[in-house]
């Protein structure tokens, strides 16, 4: 007994295989951004959390923000990664600590105002 010769794939089978491969490739391309977004993002902290005395003023930089002598300093993050504050809003600083030191220089002997109650009504 001899073995039967192998049949060549038909045109229909080839087209079905090509279509299935195209669907799989399209699905993978569509899901790639979703799967990438699920990965935890690596966050870059511009400066280490710090606490120091600068020109006789206590500066604390932590997750909650920046405090000078225990009073909060309003800080804004710019799109380029630098920081600015309400005390000196015409100049940007590379790290929160640099910003706090510049605020101390600008304040002199004055104190930051305590956080005010919202005035919108």
List the helices and strands and how they pair.
Blueprint: H1 11-38, E1 50-54, E2 57-62, E3 65-68, E4 71-73, E5 75-77, E6 83-85, H2 96-107
Antiparallel strand pairs: 1-2, 2-3, 3-4, 5-6
Q: Can you characterise this structure?
A:
The chain is α+β, with helices and mostly antiparallel strands and 121 residues long. 33% of the residues lie in helices and 20% in strands. The chain contains 2 helices and 6 strands; from the N terminus they run αββββββα. Strands 1-2-3-4 form a 4-stranded antiparallel beta sheet, with helices on one face. β1 (50-54) and β2 (57-62) form a beta hairpin. The radius of gyration is 31 Å and the shape is rod-shaped.
Features:
121 residues; alpha+beta; four-stranded antiparallel beta sheet; two-stranded antiparallel sheet; 2 helices; 6 strands; rod-shaped
From the helix content, strand content and strand pairing, which structural class follows?
Answer: alpha+beta
The oligomeric state is: single chain
- Give the proportion of residues in helices: 25-40%
Number of strands: 6
Order of helical and strand elements? HEEEEEEH
Unreliable segments of 5+ consecutive residues: none
Give a quick precis of the structure.
With 121 residues, the chain is an alpha+beta fold. 33% of the residues lie in helices and 20% in strands. The chain has helices at 11-38, 96-107, and strands spanning 50-54, 57-62, 65-68, 71-73, 75-77, 83-85.
